[in-house]
Each structure stands twice: as structure tokens, then as C-alpha cells.
Amino acid sequence: MDQIRIGIVGYGNLGRGVEYALRQNPDMALVGVFTRRPPSSLTLQTPGVPVYPLDALDGMEGAVDVLLLCGGSAADLPEQSPRYAGRFHLVDSFDTHANIPAHFAAVDAAARAGGKTAIISAGWDPGLFSLVRALAAAVLPCGESYTFWGRGVSQGHSDAVRRIPGVRDARQYTIPVPAALDAVRSGANPALTTRQKHMRECFVVAEEGADRARIEQAIITMPHYFADYDTTVHFLSEEELLRDHGGLPHGGFVFRGGRTGRQEQNRALVEFKLTLDSNPEFTACVLTAFARAAFRLGRAGQAGCKTVFDIPPAALSPLSPEELRRQLL
Ligand code: NDP
């Protein structure tokens, strides 16, 4: 079996996750990791796989089938995805929801010019959650959709707490409010405010002698991040933070509550739930499945930028169409 040759661009949490995910997909092989840092500063988990400086990608068009871009959405992907989309099939997990149309346009122009296939925003949200929202809304046109995130670590909110003077380190968890989940599951299709849907919990390591009451006030009144939520703040030691809050768990729920029947008298509820010990490792698993689709669509000449909505589920699966029909229908 000819393996799909994969290059990883960027070796952070997500890049490492892709390295692990590829081990579970024997139809793919890791050709190399490409980084902006000195290659000798990285230690991969897979013996024998080379680490290259990012510039080495120029000239490797014949050696890599699909690039998995694992950089950050804020600054890396807006520059890297359009830069490589004309020369490689690629997949990214761009997650700045408001900027997806502009990112799509930039990647699409490059991919079409080079006759390559690019799939953007292929994580879990955006990504799998987007697919479920679209599918459930199409099936139940009379209804309401809801998305809840957590319990999970939000990097953006953790960073916001770390920027407060007197804070040495912090972790922030986003948590769905149980009463809101119950209300949605009841089929009442409730109207919920921001505060009614999610709460926030912060674990903070304060600098020695810092005024904890002031830090707590600065957190719970912070506009955009915390002011619209019920927020709990706990202070703890650096050792406790590392011991108890070192992971990157996440997850969430997508619901669609609808009505069916002659008088729309019957309730129908779609519920899709993710519980993830590691957000980046799961996101990497999603990217890896979409790499297979990018390769197949690329081979079929379907050039341009795609999102998860444009990918046939069969293109994600390692099974052949015959096996899929036999095993999963
Ligand atoms: P990281 O901050 O761990 O890595 C981002 C980049 O920073 C890496 O590609 C790497 O590039 C560089 N980097 C990593 N570690 C270091 C370091 N120690 N020193 C200097 N540079 C470093 O981000 P994540 O991997 O956790 O996440 C990447 C993106 O994935 C996020 O920005 C988010 O947008 C997206 N994401 C999307 C999800 C979705 O559902 N759609 C879910 C989760 C994440 P290089 O090797 O070139 O230096």
C-alpha cells in the first residue's frame, strides 16, 4: 500500500498530537516536521523522522503529499496556509470564527492557482461541531440549536488572567451550567443568556505578597472575558497548579431541539457530546482524518479551498466504499 506522505508544520501541542495520531493510521507516513525554531531544539517521539527548518519545504513538493499546518490561528495560519496552499495539499484547524471567510478566500486563491486542495478549520469547533450543527438544522428545520463548551481549559481566558499584575500563572475552565443543559434536554427550547449557559472557574498562582482580593476583582469584572459570567476564583500554589491542572481537557455539546408531526406535537432532540482528556490530541486526530480526504480530493483534481461541509464522509475513512457499505450501513 502506498502511504500518504505527511509533513507537519509547527511542533506545538497540535503538532505533537498529529505525530501520535499518524501512528494510528497505517495508510499515512510522517515525512518530516518543519519548524521555525532551530531543528536541533526539538525532540520528536518518533525515531528516525527528520526535523527541518521551515524553509526546507521549498523544493519538497515532490516528497510531501499533504501538509498538516499546526500553527496558531492568531498569527501563524493566516500567513502560512495561503503561503503553502499553491504548492501542497493541506489541512489546517483555523479557529478564529469571525475571520473564516477571509481566510477561506486567501487560501482558495492560492490553492486554485496551484491546482491543490486545501481544507481549513478542520478541528472540533470549528470542525465536527460545525458539521453536526449543519446536519441537525437541515434535518430539523423547525427548532433551536445550542452549543455548550466544557468542562475544559480555555487558553485565551487563562492568558487573560496571567496578564493581571500579581498573577504568576493561571488556568481557566469553561463549564456549562447544568440547569441550562437540563432545560435544553427537556425540549423546552429555552432562550438562554450568556450567564445562564456557561460559568467560569479560575485557578490562580499569585506572586508573593500580591493583593488577592484585588486580583479576584480584576478577574470577575474583566470585560468580554469574565464580566458576563458567574466566575469562581481559587488561589493555589504553583505545585498544586502543575499537579492538578497540567492537562488540556475540553469538550462540549451541540444540541438541536426540534418538532415533528402533523401539529409539530412530537419532540426530537439531537445531542452530540465530546469529552476530551486532551483537546490538542483530539484536534490532531480530526486533522489527520481530513488529511486523507485532502489527498483523495487532490488526486481527483478538486482544486481550491474546502471546509468540513464540502468533504464527503467516505473520503475521511480508511475503509473502501464497499467496506463502508458492508460494515456501517
Ligand atoms: P501551540 O502554542 O502549542 O503551538 C503553536 C505554534 O507555536 C507551533 O506550531 C510552534 O511553531 C510554536 N511553538 C510551540 N511551542 C513553542 C515553544 N516552546 N517556543 C516557541 N514556539 C513554540 O499551540 P497549539 O498547538 O496548542 O494550538 C495551535 C492552534 O490550534 C491554536 O491556535 C488553535 O487555533 C488551533 N485549535 C483549533 C481547534 C479546533 O477545534 N478548530 C481546537 C484546538 C486548537 P514552530 O514549531 O514553527 O515554532
From TrEMBL:
It comes from Flavonifractor plautii 1_3_50AFAA. Its EC number is 1.4.1.16. NADP(+) binds at residues 11-14, 35-37, 70-73, 93-95, 122-126. Keywords: Amino-acid biosynthesis, Diaminopimelate biosynthesis, Lysine biosynthesis, NADP, Nucleotide-binding, Oxidoreductase. InterPro entries: Diaminopimelate_DH_Ddh, Meso-DAP_DH_C, NAD(P)-bd_dom_sf. This is Meso-diaminopimelate D-dehydrogenase. It catalyses: meso-2,6-diaminopimelate + NADP(+) + H2O = (S)-2-amino-6-oxoheptanedioate + NH4(+) + NADPH + H(+). Gene3D superfamilies: Dihydrodipicolinate Reductase, domain 2, NAD(P)-binding Rossmann-like Domain. GO terms for molecular function: diaminopimelate dehydrogenase activity; nucleotide binding. It is an enzyme of class 1 (oxidoreductase).
